[in-house]
Amino acid sequence: MDSLNNGEFSFSNNTIKQDLSLLIQALDSSISGIILTDNQQPDNPIIYCNRAFEHITGYNRQEIIGHNCRFLQKEDRNQKERQILRKAVEEGNECVVEIRNYQKNGTLFWNELYMSPIKDEDGNVCYFIGVQNDITRRKKAEQELLHQQEIMESQIRERTKSLRESEDYLSSIVQTVRESLVVLNPDFKVLSVNDHFLKTFKVTKEETEGKLLYELGNGQWNIPKLKELLENILPTNNPVEEFEVEHDFPHIGKKLMLLNAHRVELEGQYKDRILIAIEDITDRREIERRKDDFLSIASHELKTPLTTIKGYVQMMQRLLPENVSEKFKDILKKTGLYVERLNTLIAELLDVSRIQTGNIELHTEPFDFDKAVYEAVENIQSATKTHQIIIRGKGSNNYSGDESHIVQVVNNLLSNAIKYSPESGEVDVYLSRVSNFIKVSVKDSGMGIKVEDHKKIFDRFYRVGEIQQRFPGMGIGLYVCDQIIKNHGGTLWVESEPGQGSTFSFTLPLERNPNDK
Fold first, then answer.
1. What Å distances lie between residue 440 and 66, 136, 225, 338, 428, CA to CA?
2. Ramachandran region of residue 501, left (φ > 0), alpha (ψ -120 to 50) or beta?
3. Distance from C-alpha of 96 to C-alpha of 81, rounded to nearest angstrom
4. Do strands 426-434 and 388-393 pair parallel, antiparallel, or not at all (unpaired)?
5. What is the rounded distance in angstroms from the CA atom of residue 144 to the CA atom of residue 149?
6. Contacts of 169 (CB under 8 A, 6+ apart)
7. pTM of full prediction above 0.70
């Protein structure tokens, strides 16, 4: 009888696995984007997406899991449809909206979203399923039809005149731009160049216009990868951005050029033309290299004497006579504190130097992730009396990574949360498991950050203006954190609005692909 029961259980278990596998295959075969969000976790994060969702949005699964769906609207946050979605989530109802979303490369697409709750046996909403279809073509057709209906025959001559004036106006602007500009036809022949191009490359219009781009000079633009990117501009409207070309150019020698290319369209005209902007960044890159070299040398040279000073201060603290004055003790204590702060700053500068030179090393070993984060919170809590740090949730007891670097990230996010919310006495930390990712969120109730600064704050040495005025610093902590998380195959981002506090979150894959960078 036991044997029969075990056999039945095995058959049932195998059937469930087959059904689940079939369901996942069906979802991945769908042309509609499908996501599943967990309403039981804070901010209702995405825990599943199918391949069509990745294709429609341009993001890969690693960049999607753990985010709230709102990240697809980027800075376009004043849409009334967002309120409809928020209300549906709060009330546990289904809804249908047409909303503007943006792909990873910034391209707008219209999304027809069907959202429906999934409830448990007691009627509690546990999850939401969202099905989205790209209706951009339909919207564009509707808008074009409406536009055509509004156009009157009496406007044709006026529009023609306006176009000619615009061409003359734009032509004058192009000639004064301090950047080399080239216009190509669909066959990649040069139609026109501006004066800055002629001066930069020391050529004439006769040597340039009417020539194939790839045959200019000594073939400096005849690069297979560049060709591939340029050939995709007209059919797909995908621009070429930040493409670097280092070459020994005729007449001007070895230079580093930064190239950007876009499709040109002016009042419905010139749809099949490509505008290329070329910037000489040779001097700028050399300045950056010298700055990095100085940063590396200075931080290393400062490390040795500072270590000696730190040792002397610690020795003085141990050898203090019993009858020394309290004022002397206080001065010595403050000296030790400032030496420690300077030591931390130099350590961050060394991290930046190692990142820039590609010498940062990861010591990957299995460790208890949750325990490491909880201990980091305890250490920060013991050092602050102004804030209470509340930690909740669980991620994983077994994670393979560089424990010291991960703890460094957590410490930095906690320190920032305390530093930038001096009038709030609470910081929230939440650990969770989202699909096959660990997610950590640190939330404060501080001054907040403008949407346009969300990406910039992770740049090296970037400081938000109003924050710099109140809290001086060098702007390298978040840059180092971002690089550490990227080196672990994860992503770090911020959700924030001025006056509403900030939530910094990062996800780390539990099973990392060896090809991930």
1. 10, 35, 38, 31, 11
2. left
3. 9
4. parallel
5. 9
6. none
7. no
Q: How far apart are CA 436 and CA 165, in angstroms?
A: 58
Helix (H) or strand (E) holding 341: helix 326-357
Q: State how far the alpha carbon of 413 is from the alpha carbons of 79, 179, 442, in Å.
A: 31, 40, 7
Half-sphere exposure of 178 (CA within 13 A, CB side): 1
Q: What is the pLDDT of residue 419?
A: 87
Q: How far is CA 85 from CA 95, 99, 337, 371, in A?
A: 7, 10, 50, 37
Q: Is 56 exposed, middle or buried (0-12, 13-18, 19+ CB in 10 A)?
A: buried
Question: Using the 8-state DSSP alphabet, how is residue 212 labeled?
Answer: B
Tokens in use for 213? 């781009």
Does residue 86 contact residue 103 with C-beta atoms inside 8 Å? no
Within 177-262, residue ranges assigned H as helices are 195-201, 224-231, 233-236
Sheet with 388-393: strands ordered across: 388-393, 426-434, 437-443, 502-509, 491-496
Residues 134 and 56 sit within 8 Å (Cβ to Cβ): yes
Q: Closest Cα to residue 341, out of 388, 299, 306, 377?
A: 306
pLDDT of residue 414: 93
Distance of alpha carbon 483 from alpha carbon 476, whole angstroms: 11
The token pair at 466 is 């109003």
Give Cα 14 distance to the centre of its chain. 41
Task: Say which residues have a Cβ less than 8 Å from residue 480's Cβ, sequence separation at least 6.
Answer: 348, 351, 352, 355, 408, 412
- Give Dmax over CA atoms of the chain in angstroms: 99
- Which residue type, as a one-letter code, is found at position 227? K
For the chain, residues with pLDDT lower than 50 are 1-11, 517
Q: Are strands 46-49 and 180-184 parallel, antiparallel or unpaired?
A: unpaired
- Answer positive or negative: Cα dihedral of 430, 434, 439, 444: negative
Residue 145 has φ and ψ, to the nearest 5°, of -65, -45
β-sheet with 46-49: strand ranges across: 46-49, 33-38, 125-134, 108-119, 95-102
* Tokens linked to 230: 């340029």
Phi-psi region of 123 (alpha: psi -120 to 50; beta: other; left: phi over 0): left
Residue 306: CB atoms within 10 A of its CB come to 16
Cα–Cα distances (Å) from 10 to 13, 19, 466, in that order, read: 5, 14, 63
Structure tokens at 92: 């546990």
- Tell me the per-residue pLDDT of 182-237, one tens digit each, with 9 for 90 and over: 888 889 999 888 888 989 899 998 999 999 999 998 988 998 898 888 888 888 88
Beta carbons of 34 and 131 less than 8 angstroms apart: yes
Q: What is the 3-state secondary structure (H, E, C) of 353-400?
A: HHHHHCCCCCCCEEECHHHHHHHHHHHHHHHCCCCEEEEEECCCCCEE
φ/ψ (deg, to 5) at 260: -130, 140
